[in-house]
Amino acid sequence: MTVRDMGSPDLSSTTTVNVSVIDENDNVPLFASSYSETIAENTRASWELQVNATDEDSTSNGELTFSIAAGNTGGDFVINSTSGLVTIRNALDYERTAYYNMTLLVRDNGRLDS
Q: Which is it for the CA torsion 51, 63, 83, 78, positive or negative?
């Protein structure tokens, strides 16, 4: 940036202006796909499902937190809130619950500024 006076001769000074753009929380986190699994009754420790999601924001606006929002009958499953790794908490029993239709939730850790 240069400024000049209106004198004769004109005098001037130059400086550098640095502009940093701050990321807004303007992107929605999205799961990479939907998931469907078939698991044998009494399966426990050996089963894992890695769910993946992305958010195009940066800093905390793009950091994701996973949770099970619905359908986790008996609390039989658990999800790691940071990694999205779903594991079995309780041995599965077909006679108790034959089908799970879980809703997983991913949210970013940003906040909306107005």
A: negative
* Joined tokens for residue 8: 């004769």
Q: Which two tokens stand for residue 28?
A: 């929605």
Nearest CA to 57 out of 114, 97, 112 is that of 112
pLDDT in tens, 66-110: 999 999 999 999 999 999 999 999 889 999 999 999 999 999 988
Look up residue 69 and give its two tokens. Answer: 């929002």
Q: What's the one-letter identity of residue 94?
A: Y
* Neighbouring C-beta atoms of residue 67, cutoff 10 Å: 13
C-alpha distances out from residue 100 to 31, 37, 91, 97, 103, Å: 19, 10, 14, 7, 10
pTM of structure: 0.79
Tokens encoding 110: 């940003």
CA angle 59–62–64, rounded 5-degree value: 125
